[in-house]
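S.,

Sequence below, as promised.
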Amino acid sequence: MLFACAVFAGCYDAQEIDSDSYVIAIGADTAESGYVFTFQFSNPLSIYSDGGGGEGSSAGTVTLRAENFDTAKGLLGSFIGKNVNLSQTKVIIFSYDTAKAGVSNLVRDFLADGEIRENAYVLIASDNAEKFLEEVDPILSISAAKYYENLFRDEALKFAPLTTLKTVGETLENPWLDCVVPLAGTAENEDFSGAAESVDFTAGEQPRRGGEKTEVIGMAVMKDGVLVGELSGYYAALFKILDKKAKNLPLSIDGAAFRITQNPYVSKSVSVRDGIPRISVNVSLTADSNNAERAQSALCAELENLLYRSAREYNADIFGFGNICRRKCLTDFDWERTNWSEVYKRAEFDVKVKISTK
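The prediction came back faster than expected:
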């Protein structure tokens, strides 16, 4: 008994928290050969403390070029001087050029890694991923890690979607699924003369002064892991309505201002006749509005516009209509015969909106 206590009571595999280097964000930019990876580190004490200790320490970045992610990770450990720990990675950001070229291989590499969590959030930089990560210097948060934690909440991101690594990976394995990814950029526009009445701009275009240097507004449309289009924060807000994640969302449409007070109820139905999908969408929401009838009519038209853009311009089923159609097919042969990826761009939409006021 004494021998067992002596053997098993020891902390032989214990590891000090400052022996690890915790990566909180990973950026990927294209290079002539391979990629340029940027790793953003946080002080390990900021992960485990309750606000004291090293919580206020700033994050640092390391950038290197490698053929693939596994090689980059291996090279990183050779000169950091600590064990590289990816278990706290909160953000993966691709540059615009990388997304245009396709991120399928990178996403699969990240998902195959034993440490990176599937719920890490994905961003697409309006320009360069390395630049974005270097500009992350929180002034309203106590650390970069806390900045990301606070940023990726529905309450904070009113005009951008929330997309995880798992979501992007699922679209690569299922040809009837496409997705949207939030756009990230740095604040560079201080000209208020041309500011739009609504949030009809993407990250980096918002007229503002002060606050964090970085911002997340708008969304990229992804099909088969490739960026096929960009939509402003205004359309991202409309997307959140159809995605049933629009609680406390303020909108101004055609001069009718209102605020959605609860997550909307959205029902969808799909049928395919003569090779043309007929899609009906019914939206019911509660809002604060002085002119509910006008807002209702305007919102109906704008949601239809978004749906037609997704089909006609991008042929990207970002709302999951194909999955509804697939569930109605009796056999896999029936589903394959539908040829959804080809017929979706000819889809016809019928949208109905009902706005109830308090």
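The longest strand covers residues 276-289.

Coffee later?
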